[in-house]
Specification:
mainly alpha; elongated
Length: about 130
């Protein structure tokens, strides 16, 4: 019984809830995370196209495996960074689960990253900036 009172007191402290609400409001008004996600989507799509369209043919047709050895890790870094930003945007409440799943799956389609970047660009253009909320 003493433990429940302690947990209830911790969960319902007015000073903690007053600090959490404005931060959540600011995150939804901020468009920079979505702009960064759009840039990461375009970068991931570009590295995927370069890897599949240039480096792999050079490896197999031109007998030059160094292209894949260079572009492979670059694409891997771009892919992981993009998925990290998708997860961060989901955690911040900027994306729904369905949107995050679609964005994650789009990373496997070579041209889809450009469509995602365009879509996120439109979405950020429609949202008012933080200064317009006041």
């Amino acid at each position: 019984m003493g433990r429940n009172r302690c947990l209830d007191g911790w969960l319902h402290r007015p000073d903690q809830t007053a600090q959490a609400a404005p931060a959540l409001k600011d995150v939804h008004g901020e468009t920079k995370p979505l702009q960064g996600l759009g840039i990461a989507a375009a970068a991931e799509a570009t590295t995927l196209l370069l890897l599949v369209g240039v480096a792999v043919p050079l490896k197999h047709l031109g007998d030059w495996p160094a292209a894949v050895q260079v572009l492979g890790p670059i694409h891997g870094l771009a892919f992981v960074a993009y998925l990290w930003l998708v997860l961060q945007s989901l955690g911040a409440g900027l994306l729904s689960r369905g949107e995050a799943a679609r964005l994650a799956l789009s990373a496997f389609v070579p041209v889809a990253g450009y469509l995602v970047a365009r879509s996120l660009g439109r979405r950020t253009a429609e949202q008012p900036s933080r200064g317009q909320w006041r």
